[in-house]
Amino acid sequence: MYRKAMYRADRMADNLPLLEPFTKQHTYCAYCPKMCRFSCPVSVAQSSETTTPWAKMTSAHHVNDGNLDMSETVAASWYGCSGCLRCRTHCTHRNEVAATLYAARAEAIQQGRAPTRAVAVLQEHKRRERNAALAASRLYTSSATDAQPDVMYFPGCTANVLCADESVAGWRATRALADAPVQVVADRCCGLPLLEAGDPNGFRRAATEALLAISTARLVVFLDPGCLHALKIESVRHGLTPPADRMIHLSELAAQHIDRIEPLPKPMTARYHDPCRLGRGLGVYEAPRRVLAKILASEVEEFHQCRHDSICSGGGGQLPRTDPQTAAAIAKNRVAQHAWVGGGNIVTACPGSARQLSKNGNDPVLSFASLLEESCREDR
Question: Structure pTM?
Answer without folding.
Answer: 0.92
